[in-house]
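During the second half of the funding period, the structural biology subgroup turned its attention to how the target accommodates small molecules. The most pressing case was uridine-diphosphate-N-acetylglucosamine, which had performed well in the primary screen but for which no bound structure existed. We therefore specified the complex as follows and requested a full 3D prediction, including the ligand pose.
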Amino acid sequence: MDQILVRGNGPLNGQIAIAGAKNAALTLMPATLLTDQPLTLTNAPRLSDIATMTQLLRSLGSEVASLADGKVLAMSSAAITNHTADYDIVRKMRASILVLGPMLARDGHAIVSLPGGCAIGARPVDLHLKALEAMGAEMDLREGYVHAKAAGGRLKGAVYEFPFVSVGATENALMAATLARGTVVLKNAAREPEIVDLAQCLRRMGAQIEGEGTSTITIQGVDSLGGATHPVVTDRIELGTYMLIPAFTGGTVECLGGRLELVAAFAEKLDEAGLSVSQTAAGIQVTRGGGDMRAVNVRTEPFPGFPTDLQAQMMAALCTAQGVSVLEETIFENRFMHAPELLRMGAKIDVHGGTATVTGVKNLRGARVMATDLRASVSLILAGLAAEGETVVSRVYHLDRGYERVEEKLRALGAQIERIKE
Ligand code: UD1
């Protein structure tokens, strides 16, 4: 397994291009299953999760071509030739569950392996299933697989209120509803930019949707959808991750393609911590002047709140801030696995349940650390940029799931970072 070696070497400066959103692409790709016409995504990120989704879609009968060095995904699903999403693919990536709604909506039946548990908590899919049941699906769980059938062969109109906000469940329900007979109203829906992006793509395909970006989405089902070409929205998590670089190293970094409305709650915290954040014509610029970072308190929330996917990176940045910061994780249980690794680098962190208290220390020191999940792994690399000496991060396959060419991007800013192939 590859490792990443980082040496702290002072301020980093320059521009960094932000890719299309992983989490948007992973829901836009299954939308190909809703139509027999071609669906093309531009601004796609080059990530191993995209390769996994490609493999899954091909197993169902879709054609997926990766063009323009992976930035364009040309998909076509003339017919779904296999309606079973196999355990061997689903276990690699939870987002695989997103093929369920589209297959069920188009052909009235689907079998999908239940995604297993995952390092950041139990993460069930019950809300995905309940929303589809409200639209008339019958669900049967057998030997680890969900067997879903639409009564009468087609999903129907419904009003469904999510008991709490779920991004994935909203996406599955939204895709399924586009082909329902009648009107589907989704209440307490997720409002993430990736949902808005999905709704825009579906509308290009001919879907009738209103209210995306608010907590009530109304979908008027249509008989069929057509093809479209759609650009994937900017990755706000990659954006937020790289906006934090000056917190670790000092200097000025401009994140190309960034827009403040994608990361408003996060940018406010950076400002409170003493970084200066501004929108430029090309993106978002972040500078750390002379002073130290100041401690801030953070509570993760669904969008538009502070994203759980930026919590690990923020915690790493606060390790050397002046004062005591309290981070509260409200979305996932067990999402502080980066804390013990940061302790190995000299950080002072106390974790109690869903709350972590970080007492700022003067410096971090390089160490051998292990990545436990996607966001944790990048937080350790960032910490390594600030640490004295050498940091070696192992198990970086997590990183390749969600960050495109990370060493290349950081090296262009002047970072000393290399991949050790094994
Ligand atoms: C998506 C993102 C992930 C991000 C998360 C929260 C993708 C591919 N992944 O994940 O990066 O961290 O949103 O912003 O887009 N839950 C249930 N039952 C369900 C579904 C969810 O109990 O059926 C719970 C989860 O365990 C969690 C909470 O709801 O506690 C939020 O999860 P959800 O928003 O669904 O996250 P994902 O869609 O899995």
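Two results from this model are relevant to the next phase. The chain is about 30% helix and 25% strand. The radius of gyration is 22 Å.
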